[in-house]
C-alpha cells in the first residue's frame, strides 16, 4: 500500500486525517480499577464507569490488561479484532468507548494455532 493509499484508508475508516488521528494529545484523567482479589467485579465496574463517562460526553478508552481473566470483550459484546494500520492499533468501539483487551490477542492466537491442548 502506498503512503497515499494508507492515508485515504485511515480517513475512510476513522473519518479523520491521519495527522489528526495519531497526534500526541494529553490525557486528562486516568481511572484505575484494581483489587488484590479475583472475582470481585473489577471488569464490570470498569466497563460501567467507561460507558457512563462516554454517555456524559467524555472521550473514553478502556484497556483490559488482564492476561488470564480478560472479560471486557464479553461484557461489552465485542467481536473481532482491532485494526493495525501503520504500526498503530485502531481499537474497537462500543457504546462510545474505545476498547483494547488482551482478549483480542488471545482470541487471535487461538484462531491461528488452535485451542490450547
Describe the secondary-structure layout.
Elements: H1 3-14, H2 18-21, H3 42-55, E1 60-64, H4 72-75, E2 83-85, E3 88-90, E4 92-94, E5 97-101, H5 102-113
Parallel strand pairs: 1-5
Antiparallel strand pairs: 2-3, 4-5
What does this structure look like?
It is a single chain. With 117 residues, this protein is of the alpha+beta class. A hairpin with a 2-residue loop joins strand 4 and strand 5. The N and C termini lie far apart (38 Å). The model has no long low-confidence stretch (mean pLDDT 84).
**N to C succession of SSEs:** HHHEHEEEEH
What is the radius of gyration computed over CA atoms, rounded to a whole number of angstroms?
A: 16 Å
Strand order of the largest sheet: 1-5-4
Give the helix tally.
5
Low-pLDDT stretches are none
Number of E strands: 5
The chain-level structural class is alpha+beta
State the helicity in percent bands.
Answer: 25-40%
Key attributes of the depicted protein:
117 residues, 39% helix, alpha+beta, two-stranded antiparallel sheet, 3-stranded mixed β-sheet, 5 strands, globular
Amino acid at each position: 500500500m502506498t503512503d497515499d493509499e494508507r492515508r485515504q484508508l485511515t480517513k475512510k475508516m476513522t473519518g479523520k486525517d491521519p495527522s489528526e488521528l495519531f497526534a500526541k494529545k494529553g490525557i486528562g484523567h486516568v481511572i484505575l480499577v484494581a483489587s488484590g482479589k479475583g472475582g470481585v467485579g473489577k471488569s464490570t465496574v470498569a466497563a460501567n464507569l467507561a460507558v457512563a463517562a462516554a454517555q456524559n460526553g467524555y472521550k473514553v478508552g478502556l484497556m483490559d490488561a488482564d492476561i488470564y481473566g480478560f472479560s471486557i470483550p464479553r461484557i461489552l459484546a465485542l467481536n473481532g479484532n482491532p485494526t493495525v494500520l501503520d504500526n498503530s492499533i485502531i481499537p474497537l468501539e462500543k457504546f462510545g468507548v474505545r476498547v483494547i483487551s488482551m482478549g483480542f490477542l488471545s482470541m487471535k492466537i487461538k484462531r491461528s494455532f488452535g485451542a490450547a491442548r
